[in-house]
Amino acid sequence: MGIRTPFAERFSLTYPILLAPMGGIAGGRLAAAVSNAGGLGLVGGGYGDLEWLEAELALAREGTRRPWGVGVITWHAGIEAVKLALRFRPDVFFLSFGDPRPFAALIKDAGCALICQVQDVDAAQQAKAAGADVIVAQGTEAGGHGAVRAALPLVPSVADAVAPTPVLAAGGISEGRGLAAALMLGAQGAVVGTRFYACQESLGHPSAKRRIVGADGGDTVRTHMFDVVRGYAWPAPFTGRALRNRFTARWAGRDDELARSLDEERPRYQAAAAAGDFETAVVWAGEGVDLIADVPSAAEIVQRIGREAERRLGMASGLIV
Amino acid sequence: MGIRTPFAERFSLTYPILLAPMGGIAGGRLAAAVSNAGGLGLVGGGYGDLEWLEAELALAREGTRRPWGVGVITWHAGIEAVKLALRFRPDVFFLSFGDPRPFAALIKDAGCALICQVQDVDAAQQAKAAGADVIVAQGTEAGGHGAVRAALPLVPSVADAVAPTPVLAAGGISEGRGLAAALMLGAQGAVVGTRFYACQESLGHPSAKRRIVGADGGDTVRTHMFDVVRGYAWPAPFTGRALRNRFTARWAGRDDELARSLDEERPRYQAAAAAGDFETAVVWAGEGVDLIADVPSAAEIVQRIGREAERRLGMASGLIV
């Protein structure tokens, strides 16, 4: 079985499911596991730490013979990170959060497909103009960084704006119903993040995975505060969606005060993060946490999402009188 | 042709499309037109103005022989409004924004189906306990009042939480792709608001309809300010999504200051509203405005949404290998 879209065919996928390149969470072992299961696994290069990237890219490269890829945070990652990643010959390069133009030619000249993730229709048109082979329309329900528009109306708007460039949906998709819905919206596949955070191969802390399993969709919030305390100067319009904890309760609406208290708060935060204390440290998570109840293998997740989507799609024509 | 779900069958609908009971916009003529076209038309009773309700309910009652209904803002509408509406023998009663229990027995004892709209999973469970026959999961992308959770992850979560009670999806659905996606998410139909605001039979001001046609999804914002200036004390967690205009730009982040300036600002706002000046007055609208490009008849909208959804659903099984 499998689900066929032009995007899935291009990369020989059984199911058009992309592992979101979650920085520091989606390592090479997870990326390879998703690709081996028939999805498309991406290493999450995040802010572009070269040492981490090199080790994880090597794991992905060695871990799979199927197409795989890498993603970075566009506004922060340097050209060295992009060049390093390209040396491992990924099949796709995923740029999100910022202007893709400084890296687009380098990536495409290396024979690598360019996937640009966007949060609104204007950015989608800019990504297309920059040469994106695939555009991801990311809704506000997504975990981690993102912006304000919701996926259900955004995906068809982006699909119309950039046709015939293929579009994928991201945001709040953690099971087969979401993938089937994304395909009905005109997407050729779905990007899945939080669901893979809580899987065996993810580099997430075991306590963070347990928190995702225990959370519901109302337990997440979009905020600047984890960027403020960590010292990342994210540009507008991006904020990050995370699980609520004591830290978000304490600093709610007080980003400015937090910024003035960094001498004290940053060391405290860093100590908490190192200790796995997620009442202070961040667990990025999307609104799809409602639908996450266990910590299975990545392959199990790909199969579950794919088969449930198949089942829903198979019933669809039966709804027509 | 048509789309069949248990909800559609119960009310003999050609397409499982509900007209959102937009207060003051969804009058009796629009409700009847939607029902006559094979959807389910609802009069938008809003805050419960008895004179307006009586006139519009009469128009709906006279305008269609098919099932139709009425909706009110639960926390504000009085028992008199509910009793008045029931005298017109609607087939469905739509309660949104507040505790349905004060009205549930009255509505159900009248032989009228109770539809409760909710914005999170807890409220869905409360609505089920209150006797709701159908539950609407409304996403944050919806126009008008609502809350923070996005539809794509919320709809399946609500469907799981209240099964086997039927669930409908609301928020950002203005065409057939959205309806098809809603059905894949486990909903039995979709509630459509903004798309019907910009139709011929709607009671919206012609300039407001033109603004919806001209807007894109990034032009909307969730805000308290129109409630503050009009003097409606909406309870948490509800805000309203509206088109951005000079008023929203002027008062952004300054709800408290607006509340202190009402002696001057309320008369100014009321004059603007009376004059159809929508740089000051509110146009409630959802993120689906991207996909709205004209002001057709209600019947044309029902047909377009229904047929496009049929087309998408009909192609779905072809995606399976």
Automatic annotation (TrEMBL), chains A, B:
UniProt entry tagged with the keyword Oxidoreductase = yes
Oxidoreductase is among the record's keywords: yes
Query: Could you give a GO molecular-function term held by this entry?
Result: nitronate monooxygenase activity
Identify the InterPro entries for this entry. Answer: Aldolase_TIM, NMO
Q: Where on the tree of life does the source sit, at the highest rank?
A: Bacteria
Q: Which PANTHER family does this one have?
A: 2-NITROPROPANE DIOXYGENASE, 2-NITROPROPANE DIOXYGENASE FAMILY, PUTATIVE (AFU_ORTHOLOGUE AFUA_2G09850)-RELATED
> Taxonomy-wise, where does this protein's organism fall, top ranks first?
Bacteria, Bacillati, Candidatus Sysuimicrobiota, Candidatus Sysuimicrobiia, Candidatus Sysuimicrobiales
Q: What is this protein called?
A: Nitronate monooxygenase
Q: Which organism is it from?
A: Candidatus Segetimicrobium genomatis
Keywords from the named record? Flavoprotein, FMN, Monooxygenase, Oxidoreductase
